[in-house]
Specification:
Blueprint (H helix, E strand, L loop, with lengths): L2 H27 L18 E6 L9 H16 L3 E6 L6 H12 L4 E4 L5 H10 L4 E5 L8 E6 L1 H15 L4 E6 L4 H15 L6 E6 L6 H13 L4 E4 L5 H9 L2 E6 L10 E7 L2 H12 L7 E4 L6 E4 L7 H16 L9 E2 L5 E3 L7 H4 L18
Parallel strand pairs: 1-2, 1-3, 3-4, 4-5, 5-11, 6-7, 6-8, 8-9, 9-10
Antiparallel strand pairs: 10-12, 13-14
Helix pairs in contact: 2-9, 3-4, 5-6, 5-10, 7-8
């Protein structure tokens, strides 16, 4: 091989090496960049656990049934942002503290106690468990993490009284009463005052059963009132037993806390109902948004919490119109139920002429107005 041929071969090898290196370099440049791992999605907030302690069964048709309807409104409003639960038939005793403490231990951060007798037990638990919030129905004691809420049931009682005063034939009304606390006494008086506003001859008899929910006792009390001449009954107890007794014995009565029409359609004059939904939705919303704070709430017709529904067809039209006017007045503040002069059984002036009772006065009512017969248990 000549020198020229050797040099040509060396050149060709060298050029081939350069070309190969260039190809490798080009290959590196054409590689697709590696995709970065997607950012982790933010963790979904844990739902707020909300628990309800009920004094009666959810099927009582009255008080507890109304609260449970409110719980369902919360679920409807907030969906998977909340998880709700309840325990029914919780006694107003040491058991209440045990149940409420257990609710907190299970991770519930908002706990509703739905009867007056839970007040002290809830205060004890609230003092020990600061990272939960507590709401007590119908009470008056608060703490930094416990507030109270109530409904102005006396507004419904007054409207029932207006109807009863027109519909009674004996001028004797009856009330089956539960526990002698201001709430219940205020309702008895309001019922009587409503009736007297259209029929000054009315008298009201009361039988106390000393329980919120005891259908046999409620039936016995209603029967006793009817035997004593009462022909229109109202109750401040939680079952439908009073209305059912009136139906059986051919008298008239009202539903209480929930619409009880179906339990005694012939006896039913109307139902004084409570809608807890608006308050529960508001309270849970505040907890979800971090805006919850202690305090006291007392809602009535104005806030959509109290109403008189399904008034019987045979109630005179002028009476129905009067009830509608009362609702409108309560809603816009132009009408006050507890406006003086109001006197007690002995004729003592408890509220001066034209004076309007404030919430402090209403919260301490422990007397019968003129027209209510008998004595308050434990009273003077």
């Amino acid at each position: 091989m000549t020198d020229i041929s050797k040099r040509t071969l060396v050149k060709m090898v060298a050029l081939s090496a350069v070309a190969a290196a260039a190809l490798v370099g080009c290959g590196k440049k054409e590689e697709a960049p590696k995709a970065e791992a997607p950012a982790a999605a933010p963790a979904k907030p844990e739902p707020l656990k909300v628990a309800f302690a009920y004094v009666g069964p959810v099927g009582d048709g009255g008080w507890t049934f109304a609260h449970d309807n409110g719980r369902k409104e919360v679920e409807k409003a907030y969906g998977d942002k909340v998880v709700t639960s309840f325990v029914e038939k919780v006694p107003e005793s040491a058991d209440a503290e045990r149940v409420i403490r257990d609710m907190a231990a299970q991770g519930n951060k908002l706990i509703f106690g739905t009867t007056f007798g839970y007040m002290e037990p809830m205060l004890k638990v609230a003092a020990d468990i600061k990272d939960a919030k507590f709401e007590h129905a119908t009470g008056y004691k608060t703490a930094e993490n416990m507030r109270t809420y109530d409904s102005r049931t006396y507004e419904g009682a007054y409207m029932a009284g207006v109807i009863a005063g027109k519909m009674t034939k004996t001028n004797v009304l009856g009330v089956v009463a539960s526990i002698p606390i201001p709430e219940v006494i205020r309702n008895i008086n309001s019922y009587t005052m409503g009736a007297q506003s259209v029929n000054p001859k009315v008298k009201t008899k009361v039988v106390w059963v000393n329980e919120w929910f005891n259908p046999p006792k409620e039936t016995e009390a209603a029967t006793s009132l009817i035997n004593g001449g009462a022909d229109v009954l109202m109750q401040n107890t939680d079952s439908s037993a009073v209305l059912q007794t009136a139906e059986k014995l051919g008298k008239r009565a009202f539903g209480w806390d929930s619409d009880m029409t179906a339990y005694g359609p012939k006896a039913h004059l109307g139902s004084a109902v409570i809608n807890w939904g608006p308050y529960y939705v508001k309270a849970v919303g505040e907890a979800l948004e971090g805006k919850w704070s202690t305090g006291q709430s007392w809602w009535g017709v104005k806030e959509g919490a109290i109403d008189m529904v399904n008034v019987a067809a045979d109630v005179p039209e002028d009476t129905k119109k009067k009830v509608d006017e009362i609702k409108a007045g309560l809603k816009d503040g132009s009408f006050a139920i507890w406006k003086g002069p109001i006197v007690d059984q002995a004729g003592k002036v408890m509220l001066a002429k034209d004076a309007v009772a404030d919430d402090k006065f209403l919260g301490g009512v422990m007397f019968y107005v003129k027209g209510v017969e008998g004595k308050i248990p434990g009273g003077k």
